[in-house]
């Protein structure tokens, strides 16, 4: 290694920084520079592929860890006091003794951090030493290297089922069509295959790829964490630019599937890869309880300073009252004695050291231990385990478990959260004719044979072609492929493989042509029924098993439906789509371009060349409003769009998900002109996404409507019961969805969010424009009507059940600063709010608005990537591991597999976690205040000199060992009410909402109780030993014993359910106290000179006075609290106490009493009760109008209640 001057090193460092900060990077191949020194490497300024996620190094672990721990102010406080105790003029006891508590806490935390960092080191070493294949120019082949050896500019080969070591620009694939399939489960949890393609014009499938012949310059954007976007172009020697995007990028951490091998060019390595930039570690959230705890710690600091000021002032007055200089006040070596004022100033700090345990040092560690125990029981609850997916509850945020017991608002997605996200094709409308799809229907003869067939051909072709569904057969097995023959031998085993839950797969070997049957619906609209052919009518050639892998369950349902009617998707490549028609003919469509779906356009399109007519045909599918506004001349008559829109509205009222399908024939001239703009946009590095979207919009005009589809997404199991229970628990449930209002309302009725007698207020931009009213007028009018109802004397004993339905455009206006307060005022009066047609960003904005304006605890639950913003904006985010991958789970604080699990998670575990932790924290404050006040009261009798009547070692052991374990077990195991009662009576959950059990009043009541108990524990022994000749420790030992009994028995009063663990810890603490104290008094003669604790407790236990003092003091100290509980529970029992009383009943009586309680409590809350029978489902024949009528009178208008009365048939 050659020596380089420091100036050259600084110059290289500055050049490297400038190169890394450039918006565009120019990369070239490393092969011509192989073997040369690093200074001559063209890509030397960019990150290596070695990663390091550890926080510490062995050499600097101790200082860095201490620096981390000192971010917690409590640690700084106790270390400062320990250092202060080394100053002779202010020390309260032996300096070494003062270091023990904080050293124990810091050491335990350091050991935990060291273990975690060592595990990260092992993981890094394993990843960095993973083998990979890198091309070597010297050896003329790919050679095995380690991941850490790969560099930007290298050529890396990845074989099937191997993980991609760096971000690679795909240059070659073993697939003849230049396709590489990857699985991104390690990045976003999605197990469905994604397709990556070689950039156009780089290489052909006829010849192999030779890295040495690659002479293009790769220009790419600066590294970022966006997994869905990548800007790049390749500049050939002739200066021709070829655009490449995310569709050509293999991300680090992805797994290559169904592809023998692929070769890529390293564009990002190591910590600059997109996966590493997204690896931010676990997010830290502060719970509401923790924020309240910090405030109370501040109050304790104020209380401590007040007591120290009293001590300092008392010492000053005591010194001033002395007639002379007492002999125990020893002057310094020069004979100088400090003045009373200066001595009192020193005494202030001495008192801080003496009373420091008023601030609970062990509380923070105890809280972490309790939360670990709570999480263990939550994750191992069998009721939260889903057998179908073999998944259990996941706790990804370890510090907010108690927030689950304080939720007031729930914001839920609809698809995949309330519903299964397993799509079933139910109905379709083709050219104005409505077809109900009948599953497993018998074949029937076709009627109306004179009907034209080509519109239906185009419709089903669009369903088959316009998607991203991939077809797999023998290669469905995801196993390392070594040889093609080996794969063929095992192909028969792969076809029967059960699909994973997270992958949307559809397989149906029996396919055939569709038969149509004419009919007429009750609305007088001509309809036809489509029936799949029976098994005997299907062609034998179609019996081969095909596997469809889709990124969306909707696409899988559409392709499966088209397949059932004979339009079979046989194969898909980047350039072609093969479809078998009902006649058996196979058409190979050339794919000219794919206009992918985006949230702005709300549609996707595929441009193909028809193999028969050679026309360029654009097939488009998307949201109904996004397609309808782009229509040109209808395909057959001017009324097709209107009739189709009517069908769409009826589908939505049935709760079906709707899509519109359209087509357009593009002329060759238009296509060539558009293609130039398209290539220019794809090669652009600035505003590429915007330019690509503009070219898509440019082509998607003057569409011809083909039809519409209605897809059913069934409700998950027990969703209605869960939503009813959450409402009874005092939780407001909102649904934020991108579906149509009609669909959302239907689902709202189905899952009991809406009831038949609810006042449903509809606010949509369309309604506003129709009535020429602004959103402000709508909000003002609605609020006025609600207030008018509340002020009506006739409604004094009723609770108005209001539901609000609002669309995305109106939400955007309502979120504006001048309308936020009106919207929040209306929303808080609503029991249910349905926000429809909202974007992911709007979801998060709504959650933030309610959380910040109403100061309430919020929870967001979703299952897809579009719910991530909402999940992260809420106080508690819950992801559902459903059909749309694991992105929501990975961004969440907790993960469940079913919406119904939310009921037990909140009502049972949330309630337990909050009540346990709240009561434990209050108990900790009480325990420390009660014990430290014994020392404080003693100062009044020792001249406020900072003397302690209890041995220092026993004082330290008292908090560290004798009384530390019982409250931790109390926080982990205590159950104030059983799970059965909490599930049966959701109203009990309300006890934790708002201020909850841990509030300002409960905190100060405990502090005052601690002061009273400390007075009793001090003055009863004081009066018993008054005028006696007992020494200081003989006086303090009974007091210490009384404090132990009182503090532990106080906890016994608070424990609601005794278990074996409680008994062991309680009796063990008492036994440990006597064993340690007896051993200490027997062996420690000069441990704390000049004090002598020898044989103190042994002598006390031989004196009957000791037992009398312990008994009387303990009873007198606890009697007020015990009497308070007795009177309170007898005169005004709380709902929680009533719940505990139910636990003592036999199962039959308990179930009956729970049912009676729910009925009584519900009747007390509102006069109008909901009927428990589900509301009638609206159909095409009986559409439901849920929109309230606006009667316009001048500038005012009123809302009329529209209730849905079901007809009773006898």
From TrEMBL:
Residues that hold Mg(2+) according to the record: 413, 415, 863, 867
Binding site for ATP: 413-415, 555, 597, 621, 657, 737-739, 837, 843, 866-867
Domain P-type ATPase N-terminal: 42-97
GO function terms (MF aspect): ATP binding; ATP hydrolysis activity; glycosylceramide flippase activity; magnesium ion binding
Annotated region described as Disordered, given as residue ranges: 498-522
Enzymatic reactions: ATP + H2O + phospholipidSide 1 = ADP + phosphate + phospholipidSide 2; a beta-D-glucosyl-(1<->1')-N-acylsphing-4-enine(out) + ATP + H2O = a beta-D-glucosyl-(1<->1')-N-acylsphing-4-enine(in) + ADP + phosphate + H(+)
Record field: transmembrane: 73-91, 97-115, 293-318, 345-367, 938-962, 1000-1023, 1035-1053, 1060-1080, 1105-1124
Pfam families reported in the protein's UniProt record: Cation_ATPase, PhoLip_ATPase_C, PhoLip_ATPase_N
Domain P-type ATPase C-terminal: 889-1133
Topology within the bilayer: Multi-pass membrane protein
Enzyme Commission number(s) of this protein: 7.6.2.1
GO biological process, one term: phospholipid translocation
Compartment(s): Endomembrane system; Endoplasmic reticulum membrane; Membrane
Entry keyword set: ATP-binding, Endoplasmic reticulum, Magnesium, Membrane, Metal-binding, Nucleotide-binding, Translocase, Transmembrane, Transmembrane helix
Taxonomy, superkingdom: Eukaryota
CC cofactor: Mg(2+)
InterPro entries associated with the record: ATPase_P-typ_cyto_dom_N, ATPase_P-typ_P_site, ATPase_P-typ_TM_dom_sf, ATPase_P-typ_transduc_dom_A_sf, HAD-like_sf, HAD_sf, P-type_ATPase_IV, P-type_ATPase_N
SUPFAM superfamilies referenced in this protein's UniProt entry, alphabetically: Calcium ATPase, transduction domain A (SSF81653), Calcium ATPase, transmembrane domain M (SSF81665), HAD-like (SSF56784), Metal cation-transporting ATPase, ATP-binding domain N (SSF81660)
Active site positions: 413
Gene3D superfamilies linked to this entry: Calcium-transporting ATPase, cytoplasmic domain N (3.40.1110.10), Calcium-transporting ATPase, cytoplasmic transduction domain A (2.70.150.10), Calcium-transporting ATPase, transmembrane domain (1.20.1110.10), HAD superfamily/HAD-like (3.40.50.1000)
A Gene Ontology cellular-component term: plasma membrane
Signal peptide: none
Family: Belongs to the cation transport ATPase (P-type) (TC 3.A.3) family. Type IV subfamily.
Protein name according to UniProt: Phospholipid-transporting ATPase
Organism, scientific name: Nothobranchius furzeri
Gene: ATP10B
């Amino acid at each position: 290694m050659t020596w380089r001057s420091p100036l050259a090193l600084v110059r290289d460092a500055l050049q490297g920084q400038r190169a890394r900060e450039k918006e565009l990077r120019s990369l070239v191949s490393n092969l011509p520079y192989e073997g040369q020194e690093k200074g001559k490497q063209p890509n030397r300024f960019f990150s290596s592929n070695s990663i390091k996620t550890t926080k510490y190094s062995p050499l600097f672990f101790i200082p860095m860890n201490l620096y981390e721990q000192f971010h917690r102010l409590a640690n700084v406080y106790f270390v400062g006091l320990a250092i202060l105790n080394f100053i002779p003029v202010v020390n309260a006891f032996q300096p070494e003794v003062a270091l023990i508590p904080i050293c124990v806490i810091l050491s335990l935390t350091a050991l935990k951090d060291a273990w975690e960092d060592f595990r990260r080191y092992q993981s890094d070493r394993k990843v960095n030493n993973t083998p990979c294949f890198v091309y070597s120019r010297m050896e003329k082949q790919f050679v095995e290297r380690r991941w850490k050896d790969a560099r930007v500019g290298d050529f890396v080969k990845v074989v099937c089922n191997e993980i991609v070591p760096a971000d690679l620009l795909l240059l070659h694939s073993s697939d003849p069509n230049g396709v590489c399939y990857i699985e991104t489960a390690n990045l976003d949890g999605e197990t469905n295959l994604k397709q990556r393609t070689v950039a156009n014009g780089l290489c052909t499938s006829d010849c192999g790829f030779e890295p040495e012949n690659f002479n293009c310059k790769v220009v790419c954007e600066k590294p970022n964490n966006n997994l869905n976007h990548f800007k790049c172009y390749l500049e050939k020697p002739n200066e021709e630019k070829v655009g490449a995007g995310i569709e050509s990028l293999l991300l680090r951490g992805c797994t290559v599937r169904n592809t023998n091998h692929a070769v890529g060019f390293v564009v990002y390595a190591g910590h600059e890869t997109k996966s590493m930039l997204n690896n931010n570690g676990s997010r830290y959230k502060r719970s509401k309880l923790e924020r309240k705890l910090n405030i109370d710690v501040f109050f304790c600091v104020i209380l401590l300073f007040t007591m120290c000021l009293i001590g300092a002032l008392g010492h000053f007055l005591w010194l001033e009252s002395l007639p002379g200089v007492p002999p125990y006040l020893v002057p310094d070596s020069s004979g100088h004695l400090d003045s009373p004022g200066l001595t009192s100033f020193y005494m202030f700090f001495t008192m801080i050291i003496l009373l420091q345990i008023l601030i609970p040092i062990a509380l923070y560690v105890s809280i972490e231990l309790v939360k670990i125990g709570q999480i263990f029981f939550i994750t191992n609850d069998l009721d939260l385990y889903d057998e179908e997916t073999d998944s259990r509850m996941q706790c990804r945020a370890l510090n907010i478990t108690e927030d689950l017991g304080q939720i007031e608002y729930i914001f839920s997605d609809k698809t995949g959260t309330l519903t299964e996200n397993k799509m079933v094709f139910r109905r379709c409308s083709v050219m104005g004719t409505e077809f109900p799809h009948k599953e497993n229907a018998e074949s029937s003869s076709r009627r109306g044979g004179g009907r034209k067939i080509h519109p239906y051909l185009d419709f089903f072709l669009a369903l088959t072609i316009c998607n991203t569904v991939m077809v797999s057969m023998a290669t469905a097995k995801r196993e390392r492929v070594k040889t093609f023959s080996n794969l063929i031998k095992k192909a028969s085993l792969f076809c029967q493989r059960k699909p994973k839950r997270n992958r949307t797969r559809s397989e149906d070997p029996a396919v055939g042509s569709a038969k149509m049957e004419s009919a007429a619906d009750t609305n007088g609209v001509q309809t036809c029924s489509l029936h799949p052919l029976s098994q005997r009518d299907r062609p034998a050639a179609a019996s081969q098993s095909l596997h469809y892998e889709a990124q969306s369950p909707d696409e899988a349902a559409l392709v499966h439906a088209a397949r059932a009617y004979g339009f079979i998707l046989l194969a898909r490549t980047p350039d072609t789509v093969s479809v078998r028609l009902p006649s058996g003919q196979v058409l190979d469509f050339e794919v000219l371009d794919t206009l992918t779906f985006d949230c702005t356009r709300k549609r996707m399109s595929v441009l193909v060349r028809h193999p028969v007519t050679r026309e360029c045909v654009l097939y488009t599918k998307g949201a109904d409003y996004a397609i309808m506004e782009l229509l040109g001349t209808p395909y057959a008559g001017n009324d097709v769009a209107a009739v189709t829109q009517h069908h769409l509205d009826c589908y939505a009222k049935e709760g079906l998900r709707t899509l519109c399908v359209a087509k357009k024939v593009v002329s060759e001239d238009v296509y060539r002109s558009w293609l130039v703009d398209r290539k220019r946009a794809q090669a652009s590095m600035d505003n590429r996404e915007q330019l690509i979207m503009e070219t898509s919009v440019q082509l998607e005009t003057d569409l011809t409507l083909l039809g519409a589809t209605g897809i059913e997404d069934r409700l998950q199991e027990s969703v209605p019961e869960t939503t009813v229970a959450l409402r009874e628990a005092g939780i407001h449930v909102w649904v934020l969805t991108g579906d149509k209002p009609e669909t959302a309302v239907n689902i709202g009725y189905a899952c009991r969010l809406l009831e038949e007698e609810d006042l449903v207020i509809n606010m949509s931009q369309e309604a506003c424009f129709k009535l020429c009213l602004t959103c402000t007028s709508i909000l003002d009018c609605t609020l006025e009507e609600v207030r008018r109802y509340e002020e009506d004397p006739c409604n004094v004993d009723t609770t108005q059940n209001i539901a609000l339905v609002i669309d995305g455009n109106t939400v955007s206006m309502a979120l504006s600063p001048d309308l936020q307060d009106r919207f929040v005022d209306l929303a808080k009066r609503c029991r249910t709010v349905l926000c429809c047609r909202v974007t992911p960003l709007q979801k998060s904005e709504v959650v933030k608005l309610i959380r910040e304006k109403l100061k309430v605890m919020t929870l967001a639950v979703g299952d897809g990537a579009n719910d991530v913003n909402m999940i992260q904006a809420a106080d508690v985010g819950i992801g559902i591991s459903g059909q749309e991958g694991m992105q929501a789970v990975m961004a969440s604080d907790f993960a469940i597999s079913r919406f119904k699990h939310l009921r037990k998670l909140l009502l049972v575990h949330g309630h337990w976690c909050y009540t346990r932790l709240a009561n434990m924290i209050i108990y900790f404050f009480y325990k420390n205040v009660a014990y430290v006040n014994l020392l404080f009261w003693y100062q009044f009798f020792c001249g406020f000199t900072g003397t302690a009547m209890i041995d220092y070692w026993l004082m330290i052991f008292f908090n560290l060992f004798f009384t530390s374990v019982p409250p931790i077990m109390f926080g982990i195991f205590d159950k104030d009410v059983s799970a059965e009662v909490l599930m049966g009576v959701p109203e009990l959950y309300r006890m934790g909402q708002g201020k909850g059990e841990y509030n300002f009043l409960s905190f100060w009541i405990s502090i005052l109780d601690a002061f009273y108990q400390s007075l009793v524990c001090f003055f009863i022994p004081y009066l018993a030993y008054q005028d006696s000749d007992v020494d200081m420790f003989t006086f303090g030992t009974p007091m210490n014993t009384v404090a132990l009994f009182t503090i532990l028995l106080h906890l016994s009063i608070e424990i609601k359910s005794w278990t074996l663990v409680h008994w062991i810890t309680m009796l063990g603490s008492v036994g440990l106290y006597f064993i340690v104290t007896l051993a200490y008094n027997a062996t420690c003669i000069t441990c704390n000179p000049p004090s002598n604790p020898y044989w103190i407790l042994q002598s006390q236990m031989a004196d009957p006075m000791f037992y009398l003092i312990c008994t009387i003091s303990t009873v007198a100290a606890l009697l007020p609290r015990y009497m308070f509980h007795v009177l309170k529970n007898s005169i005004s029992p709380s709902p929680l106490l009533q719940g505990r009383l139910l636990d003592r009943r036999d199962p039959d009586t308990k179930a009956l009493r729970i049912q009676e309680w729910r009925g009584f409590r519900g009747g007390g809350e509102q006069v109008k009760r909901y009927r428990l029978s589900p509301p009638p489902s609206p159909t095409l024949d009986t559409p439901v109008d849920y929109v309230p009528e606006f009667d316009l009178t001048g500038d005012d208008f009123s809302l009329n209640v529209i209730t849905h009365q079901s007809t009773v048939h006898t």
